[in-house]
Amino acid sequence: MPSRVAAAEKLIVGWSAIAGAQAVPWVAKEAGLFEKHGLDATLIYLDGGSKATQAMMSGDVPVAQIGGNSPIAARLRGGDVSIIAGIVNVLAYSLIVSPDIKKPEDLRGKKLAVSRYGSNSDYATRKILMKWGLRPDRDVAIIQIPGGQPTRLAALQNGQVAGLVAQPPVTNLARKLRLSIIAEPEDFGSAYPNTPVAAQGSFLRERRDTMRRFTRALVEGVYVYKTQKEFSKRVIAKTMRVSDVDAIEDSYQFFARLVPAKPYPPLDGIREALLELGEKDPKARAAKPEDFADMSLVKELDESGFIDALYKGKR
After folding, report:
1. Fewest CB within a 10 Å sphere: which of 75, 115, 240, 281?
2. How far is CA 168 from CA 94, 97, 270, 290, in A?
3. Domain 2-90+191-311 CATH superfamily
4. pTM to 2 decimals?
5. What pLDDT, in 10s, does the model give residues 140-160?
6. Calpha distance 293→218 (Å, rounded)
């Protein structure tokens, strides 16, 4: 229906990691849900949460699915950005290492790869090292290798680094390559804003109806993702350019159970991120999680019955 597309409002939506945790906007786009809610959405890849946040702060991208504490850190520095939804709200990573690494101590003097400093992968890497009594940047070097988890897996294979934190389907590929995994998601801790959706504050205030329609499409995308497995797996395979059937199944099974039907911003996760940032920033120690989130968009859909109706088949 060309007339409908022409009338739709254009919206650029960022996403920040080639990982299964990022699948909901991909599914929403492929299912035509943005168009259904009057938006002509263009999804663009921004490598790493810190880069995605910078793009949002500059005004280039009004809304983005980010990773980790980047939007929280930006707001602490005075940035006008708010988390409007939480897609994955636990730190869902595994640590993949070369076969010669048998125990955490073996990482001493080695290099681990992350996407960018300040990203989810950076935080997860530093958190697990500190838990093991290893000092990031001193006992274990942390280097930036942009380009997504498959690129960092290749760096491990060619000996450039000793390991990386990753998610399905990359973890499944690593097992097939007989690489070692020495930390699983439960080792990293619990609540964390692993995959929040954030928006530029001025856009959120001035284009409220646009953000309402975006959130409706996103929430309906969650529904399709959770209930239409084969369609979602095809979208994941296409977007991540992975043809391994087992890897795609692993990715879907791992993340679909973690994504909440009602994706409220994760206040517990934000609190955890503030604790981490508070180690260096006194402002974070005094901050309240509620100041970093706008709960109203998901709350509106929840209270109106829109979300419950989806799962009762009343679309």
Report:
1. 281
2. 9, 15, 24, 31
3. Periplasmic binding protein-like II (3.40.190.10)
4. 0.80
5. 999 999 988 999 999 999 999
6. 17
